[in-house]
Specification:
single chain; alpha/beta; globular; two-stranded antiparallel sheet; six-stranded parallel beta sheet
C-alpha cells in the first residue's frame, strides 16, 4: 500500500559511508517514514584504497605519491546512483521523497534535484556544499569564508598528483587524530570517534570537486530547499555555510529555509534527535 508520508533518502559526505545515518533513520521510521541510505560509488563496500595505506608504519612518501584507485569516479556516477534509488523508492511508496545530503553529498543532491525535480518533496543540506549555477565545489572550498576550515590541514597528498583528497584515518599520531576530531566531530565521545575512524576511507576523488553545478532556477530552483547550519562546524565553517546559502539564493531568485544546530560537522552523531525533528518538520 502506498505510503502517505514522504520517504527520506540520505546521501553521505566525503570519506564516510551510509552508516553515518544509523542513529537518525530509526527515529524517522518510528514516525512512519520510509528512510533509506546508500553507499555512493567509491565508498564503503565499493571503496578501494592505495596499497601504501594498508602498510604500517605508514610510508608517508609513498602515501603522498601513489595514485588513487578512486581517481576515476565521476559525479555523474554518483548522481545516477541516487537518482535510481529515489525513483525506486518513489515507485514503492507511491509518494514523494525528501532528499538529504551532508557535506560533499551536497554536490550529489543538487545534481539529482536538477535531474528529477518532480520526484522530490524537498532537498535538505546538512552543513553541506550548496553550489550556485556554474560553481564547482573547489571554488567554494577556496573562498575566503572557508579560510578557518581544518580539513585542508589533514590532506597528506597533492590532489593533482594522486587524483584524490587523502587523509590518514589510521594514523596513530595523537595530534593528527585530534585535528581530525576537531574538524569533523569535536562534540562526540572518543569511543564514537574511534568507530568513525574505523569506517572511514582515506581517499575522496578530487574530480567531483571540479565539476561546475549545471543547475537552473526552472528545475533545481523549484524544489524547496532547506539548510541545517551547524554552528560549531570546523570542516565547513559557519561563515562558509552562510556564504553558500546567500549566493545560491541570489543566483536562483528563491530562498533557502534555514535551521541551526549548535553542533559539529557530524550532528547525526551528536544530536540525532534534534536533527530528526528538523527533518520531520521538513517532511510535514
Amino acid at each position: 500500500m502506498p505510503s502517505t508520508k514522504p520517504a527520506f533518502i540520505f546521501v553521505h559526505g566525503g570519506f564516510v559511508c551510509k552508516s553515518i545515518w544509523r542513529l537518525v533513520i530509526p527515529l524517522l521510521e518510528a514516525r512512519g517514514h520510509v528512510a533509506r541510505a546508500l553507499d555512493l560509488p567509491g565508498s564503503a563496500a565499493h571503496a578501494k584504497v592505495p596499497l601504501a595505506y594498508g602498510k604500517r608504519p605508514l610510508d608517508a612518501k609513498a602515501f603522498a605519491a601513489e595514485p588513487s584507485p578512486k581517481a576515476n569516479i565521476t559525479q555523474e556516477e554518483r548522481t545516477q546512483a541516487v537518482v535510481s534509488l529515489v525513483e525506486e523508492t518513489a515507485r514503492e511508496t507511491g509518494g514523494p521523497v525528501v532528499l538529504v545530503g551532508q557535506s560533499l553529498g551536497g554536490l550529489t543532491v543538487t545534481a539529482v534535484a536538477e535531474a528529477i525535480p518532480d520526484q522530490l518533496r524537498a532537498i535538505v543540506y546538512i552543513s553541506a556544499f550548496l553550489q550556485s549555477p556554474g560553481t564547482p565545489a573547489i571554488a567554494l572550498m577556496q573562498h575566503a569564508t572557508m579560510a578557518s576550515a581544518v580539513m585542508p590541514s589533514l590532506f597528506l597528498a597533492d590532489p593533482q598528483v594522486v587524483g584524490a583528497c587523502r587523509i590518514d584515518f589510521l594514523s596513530d599520531n595523537a595530534e593528527y587524530r585530534a585535528r581530525i576530531k576537531t574538524a569533523l566531530c569535536g562534540d562526540i565521545s572518543d569511543a564514537d570517534f574511534s568507530s568513525i575512524l574505523a569506517a572511514a576511507t582515506c581517499d575522496e576523488p578530487a574530480g567531483v570537486m571540479l565539476v561546475p553545478a549545471h543547475i537552473t532556477a526552472e528545475r533545481f530552483g523549484r524544489v524547496p530547499r532547506h539548510y541545517v547550519r551547524c554552528l560549531k562546524d570546523r570542516a565547513i565553517p559557519l561563515q562558509g555555510q552562510d556564504f553558500m546559502i546567500a549566493a545560491a539564493d541570489s543566483a536562483l531568485g528563491s530562498q533557502t529555509h534555514t535551521y541551526a544546530l549548535a553542533a559539529s560537522h557530524f550532528p547525526f552523531f551528536s544530536q540525532p534527535k534534534a536533527l530528526s525533528d528538523i527533518l520531520l518538520g521538513v517532511a510535514a
